Amino acid sequence: MTAFLALALVAVASPLLAFDMGQSTRCVTIPNQMKVCKDVGYSEMRLPNFLGHSNLEGEVVPRSEDWRPLLQTGCHHQAQAFLCSIIAPVCLDTFIQPCRSLCVAVRDSCAPVLACQGHPWPEALDCDRFPAEEDMCLTPLAKFSHFIKDLPKPACQNCPSVEVAPPMKTVLNAFCHHDFAITAKLHRLRHATGEPEFQVEGRVEFIRQGPLLPYDTRHLLQEWLLINRGCASALVRPGRLQLYVLTGSVQPDGNIALIHLFPWHKKDASIALATRKWKHHRC
């Protein structure tokens, strides 16, 4: 279990049904250090929140940050709004919970990310606990939803194969048989919590672009590393920056699948030759 998931699951251990809507609450400014909800669209929150947390510095802020890695995966475009409506509810004249439909939408997209780490959707976020009345709760945003669904997106998958110093023919076959081929510099760092942190450094270069979008591919690869943290730990060696050639395909559901990963060292003349020959190669 990764540290952030262990803490996050503890953070939602108090059932929402235990929250008393009639209890006395107070409004406080969302502090700068609560970065998960700082740019959510409002500046004041209610305490206690819907998890029963009333200590801003001792409970709310540190436990809210436990969700940051999950939000960074981009599992749903309204995951931040959903989570912050629970841990930092907006300060209005009435309590505004997330609608059941919003919970379902976020759960259906983000639960597979938790499952990829070996954990179920938290029981305290059971969607049946949220109101169904669309006019008294936070609803899903329909704007741009069709466009977002059409974009290639990362997902949990089996680890791609890794081949060190492959022959040129193997690399060219991978270029031919898969939808895209890219080069990227990946870095594995040690986070302060002890968990590995993965970064895509610099630009992602296309060998074969396929259905990928130039402005989105670096971010897409970063999210893939966060979702498939177990794979990333096995594939990306700790230490200095390493250049890789990655090939993959886009599945019918729009999810990308990385299939081959070739570490590209200076001595690997076969990879350099394959990338040069590719422009004139016939599959």
Automatic annotation (TrEMBL):
GO terms for cellular component: extracellular space. Disulfide bonds join C103-C127. This is Sizzled. It comes from Cyprinodon variegatus. GO terms for biological process: canonical Wnt signaling pathway; cell differentiation; determination of dorsal identity; developmental pigmentation; negative regulation of BMP signaling pathway; non-canonical Wnt signaling pathway; protein stabilization. It is found in: Secreted. Belongs to the secreted frizzled-related protein (sFRP) family. GO terms for molecular function: Wnt-protein binding.
